[in-house]
Amino acid sequence: MTELDVAQLQRRLADFAASRAWEPYHTPKNLAAALSVEASELLEIFQWLTPEESARVMEDPDSGFRVTDEVADVLAYLLQFCEVLGIDVLAALAAKIDRNEARFPAPDSAKVTQRHSSG
Amino acid sequence: MTELDVAQLQRRLADFAASRAWEPYHTPKNLAAALSVEASELLEIFQWLTPEESARVMEDPDSGFRVTDEVADVLAYLLQFCEVLGIDVLAALAAKIDRNEARFPAPDSAKVTQRHSSG
Amino acid sequence: MTELDVAQLQRRLADFAASRAWEPYHTPKNLAAALSVEASELLEIFQWLTPEESARVMEDPDSGFRVTDEVADVLAYLLQFCEVLGIDVLAALAAKIDRNEARFPAPDSAKVTQRHSSG
Amino acid sequence: MTELDVAQLQRRLADFAASRAWEPYHTPKNLAAALSVEASELLEIFQWLTPEESARVMEDPDSGFRVTDEVADVLAYLLQFCEVLGIDVLAALAAKIDRNEARFPAPDSAKVTQRHSSG
Questions:
Q1: How is C16-60 classified by DSSP, letter by letter?
Q2: How many domains in chain A?
Q3: Could A34 and C46 be called an inter-chain contact, meaning their C-beta atoms sit closer than 8 Å?
Q4: Which residues in chain D land under pLDDT 50?
Q5: Domain range enclosing A34
Q6: Which of B76, B102, D39, D93 has the most CB atoms around its CB within 10 Å?
């Protein structure tokens, strides 16, 4: 995979929407709602599972396919959202990791389990 | 940006979590919940906006920063989720677009606005 | 309807879960996830609608039924969540409205449209 | 508490919104988005907790208050959503329980743990 791929996927998604005349529906607000709905559909697969069961979800072909399919939907709406607002999502994440490394310095010893930050 | 970037971001996120001993928290179930929570934080920015206001959200530096920050959080949890389950998220999306192109053929004329599919 | 109804609905939901031996699944965490998933299923109905279309959603019997059904699911998980944690949801809301009336005093003139608080 | 309470809470919420001129914001679509955002804020409290920790969340006064506060927000937006669309939420839930009792008959013996239905 190359970066061409992220740009290429974004281009394929834009062409897909344009050829179906879906652009009027793709306001940032609607795409943010759709992204959140897809993320919930992913969560739905896990809602009644124990932590241990959740770790084995790819072992069953049906649930593995469903998980992969929902992950694709989440990324699809995230990329379309970023496309309509002109956001470079990879640069946004790189900058966020930089900020988090400054905000939450790694402990000297990583041996002690820390509470997870909420951010 | 190169594909190295997606792999690189995934590696930085994994190192970040490992050095803080957060791995026990990062079950697929917890990461799916966190992804859904971050997607809702993005939606929160838009919840009271008109469609027109939502299209101008990047014009204000504060809301533009907030949107970019939430987008980064969504991608961060999506990549971490895929990492723990061994899912190639770019391949998953490429396969999904292939399936959608077969399921929802583009109309001969794109001039007529179609209802958006729910998927 | 009487308050008996809220308590009665909560009792029916508890009996329903108990007779199917679902109680082990009904941790507060799982019920919070299920509540959030159902709220997203309600949102899904509206995600591509204009504000005007969203106001007419009950006029179509099918979408009206779907909305009513999702609203019931949201309340069902909210009441079950409150039941397992011993929270009186009506008292919680009454107390919250009291706090909001103190936090966001009504303007002398309500004629000017105010920005919506985010809370 | 009496049924007057649900109607009364709904009335107080409507007055609160009217006196702040928030009604134009309270489209069904916006209220569905806000409901989903609040449900996610409730989930956020639980996202890194084990099932066991989640069962003890009310023991800590701070997290107990936060949970109660988010529960109130969820009910507030659910009641406002139902108000603007003319839905009787208690009747909707009673009808849904009736349907579920028909769809998922209780087993003769409740001793065997069943898989949870996804609905």
A1: HHHHTT-GGG--HHHHHHHHHHHHHHHHHHHTT--HHHHHTTTTS
A2: 1
A3: no
A4: 1-3, 110
A5: 6-118
A6: D39
